[in-house]
Design brief:
The complex is a heterodimer of chains A (91) and B (323). Chain A has 91 residues and is mostly helical. Chain A has a domain of 52 residues. In chain A, 66% of the residues lie in helices and 0% in strands. Chain B is α/β, with parallel strands linked by helices and 323 residues long. Chain B has a domain of 216 residues: 3-Layer(aba) Sandwich (Rossmann fold). In chain B, α10 links the parallel β7 and β8. The chains are: A mainly alpha (91), B alpha/beta (323).
Chain lengths: 91, 323
């Protein structure tokens, strides 16, 4: 990870801060990031739906958005098309 | 009121549209109108948004996809090449993907999506709509006259604009919510900066384009919409229906032009029964038009002895129309 290459500053205080972060807001951050990710998928579904055969956005304009979502397209397709099972409800 | 009086009393109406069923003479009337305005010293752009544009035929000059081509002093004509516009646009998108991610070539999945998107029927209409916005936003001319595609398409454009607008509002809201989650995560992580959302910018751009294009059609101050009809039952009924629909979409209708009226002088001569019957039929429907549309009819255009192509014919028609 790039952050480990950086010189540490703050020493013991930084460690303490990280611990507090881990105990208090890590879970919240994770939740925010996860919600954000589901919304990202929802967003791609409603803009790029015709990739799955669901035409929603006028294609002329959906093309304008395509460059920005290019990296997500393959993970998004996998998520939308995969079969659901019991483990989905866990975690 | 005559067509001439409408133009003279409303100089602020700069977006002129002729609508009506196919083959009734929209192109002829828009060309004639453009010709007359140009002769009055106004800078006029006459353009066609019809994929089967016929401005090239009426001016007897190949102007398809060549941008604004000068016809006479102050008059330019343009036929939008939707296919080429779509192609250029696709290439632009491909290039953007290559530039953004430093790819050597566009990933296959993405590329086939780009290719298949252009096969969608709505693609051409959107591309044309977008081209119209480009032309009008530039504002190089006093008058923009467009030879509108047949009624169904025009209505489709308008309804499309409304639906898209609402749709984009919803997406924009979702995108803004997503931004809030980003900011929450960033604050909790004590990160300083949140990446600005390029997608939100694009959405706002798209919304703005769609709004501009529907505003052009529904601008009560600056747009004038003329219906072209001929004295025949089916056409009168269709026009009435279309006028109701247009009213529902807030398109300001400035008047009607009745085209292809057989000259009354014919009656004097010894004419075949066929022609006599046609004249009688027209007489009946002209009566219907007068009683239902009355002074909203701005001109009755005579059926000429030959088709209207070439500048001398257009000039003759303009003289009669704006006398």
């Amino acid at each position: 990870m790039a952050e480990q290459d950086k010189p540490k500053k703050g020493g013991i205080f930084q460690v303490f801060k990280d611990i507090v972060y881990g105990m208090s807001s890590h879970e919240m951050t994770r939740h925010a990031v996860r919600s954000r990710a589901s919304m990202e998928h929802l967003f791609i579904l409603i803009t790029m739906g015709d990739l799955l055969g669901v035409p929603i956005l006028p294609p002329y304009y959906s093309l304008r958005l395509l460059p920005y979502v290019t990296p997500q397209i393959s993970t998004w397709k996998r998520r939308m098309l995969r079969e659901r099972d019991i483990t989905d409800t866990l975690g | 009121m005559s067509l001439r009086q409408v133009f003279e009393s409303h100089p602020e109406r700069r977006y002129i549209m002729f609508g009506g069923k196919g083959g009734l003479g929209k192109t002829t009337l828009s060309a004639t109108c453009a010709y007359w305005l140009a002769r009055q010293g106004k800078r006029v752009l006459l353009f066609s948004v019809d994929p089967q544009a016929s401005l090239s035929d009426i001016f007897q000059k190949d102007i398809f996809g060549k941008g604004a081509v000068p016809i006479i002093d102050n008059l330019w004509a343009q036929e939008i090449d939707a296919d080429k516009r779509i192609q250029d646009y696709q290439n632009e998108i491909r290039q953007k993907i290559l530039d953004m991610y430093g790819f050597d070539k566009v990933p296959e999945e993405i590329d086939s999506y780009i290719a298949s998107a252009s096969a969608e029927p709505a693609m051409e209409e959107s591309a044309i709509f977008d081209a119209v916005v480009d032309i009008i936003v530039k504002g190089d001319y006093d008058y923009y006259i467009y030879d509108l595609v047949p009624l169904g398409h025009a209505l489709y454009y308008l309804s499309m604009a409304k639906v898209y607008d609402e749709w984009i509002n919803k997406i924009t809201k979702l995108r803004e919510e997503m931004g809030q989650y980003d900011r929450v995560a960033a604050t909790l992580r004590r990160e300083e900066k949140v990446e600005e959302d390029k997608i939100l910018e694009e959405l706002q751009y798209i919304k703005n384009r769609i709004n501009t294009s529907s505003r052009i059609l529904t601008d009560k101050q600056r747009a004038a919409f003329f219906f072209v009809l001929v004295p025949e039952e089916m056409i009168i009924l269709d026009t009435r229906k279309a006028a109701e629909l247009f009213a529902r979409f807030d398109v300001p209708i400035s008047g009607y032009v009745v085209n292809r009226v057989l000259p009354q002088e014919l009656r004097a001569g010894n004419i075949p029964t066929y022609l006599k019957n046609r004249i009688n039929m027209q007489e009946k429907y002209l009566g219907d038009i007068r009683s239902s549309l009355g002074n909203q009819v701005l001109a009755y255009v005579p059926e000429m002895e030959r088709d209207i192509t070439g500048l001398p014919m257009i000039e003759r028609l303009a003289d009669r129309l704006f006398q």
